[in-house]
Amino acid sequence: MKKLLDKIVREMAPLNHLTDESVVKGALADTRVQCARCTAAHCCSQATLIFLPEAFYIANKYPVPPELWAPWIVLGTTMEQSRRDDYFGQNISCVYLDNDKRCNIYDRRPSCCRVYFTACEPALCSPHHRESILVMNATNFHRQWAELMMVYNVGLGIVPQAVGALPRMMVIATKLLERPSQKYLHDQIWLDFDGPLATS
Ligand code: SF4
Ligand code: SF4
Asked: Which ligand has its closest atom nearest to the C-alpha of 96?
């Protein structure tokens, strides 16, 4: 298992680079997109689902301190059990958003954050205006990227489409990097993108 975790961590950097390149050619080429200049960060209070392999890459540089394990599991579970709009409406900032509204793990942020762009005024990205948010289709690369995450999941022995909320995935990844354990991995609960977070 350790070899696979090392391989995933090694391969995520070039993959993220490819994602960023396709974003520059796609969403950021659209002059309506103001995200690069935005300091509002309303988008960072949405429920964030990620694949576990991404969490390994983040946790390899930013391991979660043990005192945050329990609260982040609780927060992640709440995120997973909420409807997307309901969670957004609570306006809970991401665990990685600092007081200056900057991302503490920006260089390793998950893919869903890398490809999320809107073509509206930042003020319209707030939970109060969520019906008017105009989300851009940032990159065709994202689908291929997701397929690769599923290949990694299969390698880990979990359901291909398994995802989970960012805080909970980060705790799981931190623990597994410290002490690889197939049993601990298999004891976890997984969602997929059509799971309890569906809006309908
Ligand atoms: S999605 Fe909206 S709130 Fe987020 S960075 Fe872009 S403009 Fe700002
Ligand atoms: S990981 Fe960073 S970019 Fe993504 S939601 Fe959290 S603070 Fe925002």
From this structure: 2
